[in-house]
Amino acid sequence: MNSFKGLLEWVGIGMDTGGVIIIVIGALYATRVFLRNRQAVDSYLRYRRSLGRAILLGLEFLVAGDIIRTVAVAPSPTNVAVLAGIVLIRTFLSTALELEIEGRWPWEKASGPGGEKQG
User: Fold this and answer.
1) What is residue 73's three-state secondary structure?
2) Alpha-helical regions (H) of the chain
3) What distance in Å separates the CA atoms of residue 115 and residue 53, rounded to the nearest whole number?
4) Residue 118: pLDDT over 70
5) Is-above-0.90 flag for pTM?
6) Residue 51: CB partners within 8 Å, gap ≥ 6?
7) What is the per-residue pLDDT across 78-115, written as a single tens digit (0 to 9) for each?
8) Domain boundaries of the chain, sorted by first residue
């Protein structure tokens, strides 16, 4: 049983590492594209969207890593309460980023071509 918990601990750490790598690479890529196309009219908006998407994807991996480590490795009431707080904060961040990137709430349907809200 200890080897299984050890494996899950490593999987959780791997998910956290993947989340950080996604955010860093996404930020570097978004910055590179922005610097190459900064003369375009909407370059700043594209930059914010790209950066926000990288952060959102990275947050998903970080939450997954926390869930794996808390539920599978050390499911004490304290750890579960800490996990609930982390998930709550990250859910708020994800929702706020989604609103910022898409210009609409996540549960609202996109009304234009390509999933963008018209207006």
Assistant:
1) helix
2) 2-36, 43-67, 77-102
3) 14
4) no
5) no
6) 26, 27, 30, 31
7) 888 888 898 888 888 888 888 887 777 777 776 655 55
8) 2-109
